[in-house]
Input
Amino acid sequence: MKKLIILFVQVWLVVTFGFSQKVITLYDGPAPGSESWSWDEAENDNNAWKTKVVYNVSKPTLTVFAPEEGKANGTALVIAPGGAFHALSINSEGNDVAKWLADKGVTCFVLEYRLAHSLTTDPIAEVNQKMGKKEFDDENKAVIPLCVADGRAAIAWVRKHADEFKI
Output
């Protein structure tokens, strides 16, 4: 019985801490240019893309995927998942890619950058309805400079913390 309890605790520790990722808030305070945004980030995995997406991002973050000790090769990559500036295909184009690369020794930083505001819980349906229309282009035109700023801030953060991650 004692061995079973020890095994359970060890498995719990690995599951709880072994796969946890560090999440970094990209800006101190509200992100510049979107200070008035008040919507909450959300996720949806029941959509036409058949993958988990994150939407309504107003507070950009970086999630760190570091290689196992001894595997790191000194290379770093910021990954910005796609989603037409309305959603982020967070697993298939973000976390899964980062895990695969981390296994190869690359330290990855998955960027959740600011997105156009979705008015429903299915941003993919919204994108599909708006695609090719002026409304869609106008929404993207307003948010793209913020996305670029988030990408630049992410690269600056990674460079500033290069020694910490041995990159």
